[in-house]
Write a structure and sequence with these properties.
With 498 residues, the chain is mainly β. Helix content is 9%, strand content 38%. The chain is built from five helices and 32 strands. The strands form six sheets. The chain has a seven-stranded mixed β-sheet with strand order 13-12-11-15-20-17-18, with no helix packed on it. The longest helix has 23 residues, at 2-24. The radius of gyration is 23 Å and the shape is globular. It binds CU-O-CU linkage (C2O) and copper (II) ion (CU) (2 copies). CU-O-CU linkage binds next to strand 7 and strand 31. CU-O-CU linkage binds at residues 145, 147, 185, 187, 316, 430, 432, 478, 480, 482.
């Protein structure tokens, strides 16, 4: 009897110590929500009080709400060029502030490119010379970063390429990539996460000589998927939502649409998915359990379509999937792994018997025999949580070049996500200005969906990836964790290519 009491007392002590330890750390565990009130980011005075349900919930983890399917999905406009002169194409992109009716009858303060919220799709063709006028109409500095684009360091829009409020800048570059879905977003030091959160993000469609059988807005739909946490008056207050380990929300917006649904015809549809969230991973699936074809990853088409039932995208990753609605009779939605409805489909019309050509790349992606023999010449160690994140034990310093690499030369980067005492956490690792190939993960050939060109790769604690990295343009490029708050907290380095 006495023994039992002692055992339970010591158990209780151990438990209490454990809870105390957890409450002292700034790490959030799934299922355990902890407010960081009064710690890193004090709430604004006029704190828009969260509902009791939400008290202490903003921060590291947030359960997602189902989409009710009330609103038809917004389709970003395709950007019109200012002019075309032979191979030269001219565009103007303007970052601006706006008001958006995300929720019926409510104006939400947002940011956008050439509009109030998010940005247009910029179409580019391989072989073109692109010229951009970049305007900053915000109240603060910004940059224009082309995520996944092969472009000179000078035009890449990293934290060095600041455009002050009210200023503009011109850049030009040759489009040398094959068909791909890329994106653009701001990258100013200390303001990236906030500006993206408030709405600055858009897509780039690169086309090449392959004829694309899918038509924009008909059976080719971009899906910019982002979770957000709205205040009680339905505003996007970054400071309210901010968490040092990555800001998450309970509401998924797709192309800025809350509670989206997508009307499709009874045919094959290409969905171009971008996880544009600050931190949240999404694992996309169909609610009827049907498989789809994965045809492209970050940097373009896969050598051949892969049949999949789900696809995980960490922040900044893209995937193009073909969903066949021809014979679907039941209700079907795009869901995440837990079954949360992200977007119901409304399927209409008669079964279409379009024979659509399979999309495969002109230039196959392969790891050459030579590349297989290369030794590791760059070692990258990702570690930490919250404010304590580092790459190779260091925090970002704009005045320090961490690595150098020769133009056109392929080197093997070994990227290791170090486990720590707390177990570590997933970090999506991204390199600017290039598309790399994954040679191996933990010594194994990567799964098929990682065998295409990538610019961002998700690494779980303990994972070690070997990447074949080649830069085709010179300049200083960033590499970093794409959890935007980790990037802000210094989880970024610079490679100089010359
Ligand atoms: Cu999406 Cu530094 O990039
Ligand atoms: Cu990038
Ligand atoms: Cu990280």
């Amino acid at each position: 009897m006495k023994r039992r009491i002692i055992v339970s007392i010591s158990l209780a002590v151990v438990l209490m110590l454990g809870i105390f330890a957890l409450s002292q750390s700034s790490i959030s565990f799934p299922g355990m929500n902890k407010s960081h009130l009064g710690q890193e980011s004090p709430q604004p005075k006029d704190m828009r009080s969260p509902s009791p349900m939400m008290m202490g919930h903003h921060g590291g983890s947030q359960a997602l709400k189902d989409s009710t399917g009330t609103n038809e999905l917004n389709l970003p406009p395709i950007l019109e060029s200012d002019r075309i002169d032979g191979e030269n194409i001219y565009y103007t992109i303007e970052a601006q502030k706006g008001q958006t009716e995300i929720f019926e009858g409510v104006q939400t303060a947002t940011l956008g490119y050439n509009g109030n919220f998010l940005g247009p799709v910029i179409p580019l063709k391989k072989g073109q010379k692109a010229h951009f006028t970049l305007k900053n109409n915000l109240d603060e500095e910004t940059t224009f970063h082309w995520h996944g684009l092969v472009i000179d360091g000078d035009g890449d829009g990293g934290p060095h390429e600041v455009i002050e409020a009210g200023e503009e800048k011109e850049i030009s570059f040759d489009v040398i990539q094959d068909r791909a879905t890329l994106w653009f977003h701001p990258h100013p030091l200390g303001k990236t996460a906030k500006q993206v959160y408030e709405g600055l993000a858009g897509l780039i469609y690169i086309e090449d000589e392959i004829e694309d059988p899918y038509e924009y807005g008909v059976n080719d739909f971009p899906l910019i998927v982002q979770d957000r946490l709205f205040t009680e008056d339905q505003q996007l207050d970054y400071r309210y939502a901010l968490h040092p380990d990555g800001t998450v929300g309970d509401t998924t917006l797709i192309n800025g649409t809350v509670n989206p649904k997508l009307t499709v015809q009874r045919e094959k549809v290409c969905l171009r998915l971008l996880n544009g969230s600050n931190k949240r991973d999404y694992t996309f699936a169909l609610s009827n359990g049907a498989s789809f074809e994965l045809i492209a990853s970050d940097g373009g088409l896969l050598n051949e379509p892969i049949e999949k039932e789900k696809i995980k995208l960490t922040p900044a990753e893209r995937a193009e999937i073909i969903v066949d609605f021809s014979d679907v009779e039941e209700a079907v939605s795009l869901v995440d792994e837990e079954g949360t409805v992200l977007m119901p489909f409304q399927i209409e019309g008669e079964k279409q018997d379009k024979k659509l050509k399979e999309l495969t790349p002109i230039n196959k992606v392969e790891i050459t025999e030579e590349e297989k023999k290369l030794d590791v010449t760059k070692e990258i160690v990702l570690s930490g949580h919250g404010h304590h994140v580092t790459i190779n034990g260091k925090k970002y310093d704009p005045d320090r070049i961490d690595l150098t690499q020769s133009l056109g030369e392929t080197e093997v980067w070994e990227v290791y996500n170090e486990k720590d005492r707390m177990g570590g956490m997933m970090h999506p690792f991204h390199i600017h200005g290039t598309q790399f190939k994954v040679i191996s993960i933990n010594g194994e050939t990567p799964p098929k969906h990682l065998q295409g060109y990538k610019d961002t790769i998700d690494l779980n604690p303990g994972d070690r990836a070997k990447l074949a990295v080649t830069f085709e343009k010179p300049g200083v490029y960033m590499y970093h964790c794409h959890i935007l708050e980790h990037e802000e907290n210094g989880m970024m380095g610079q490679v100089k290519v010359e």
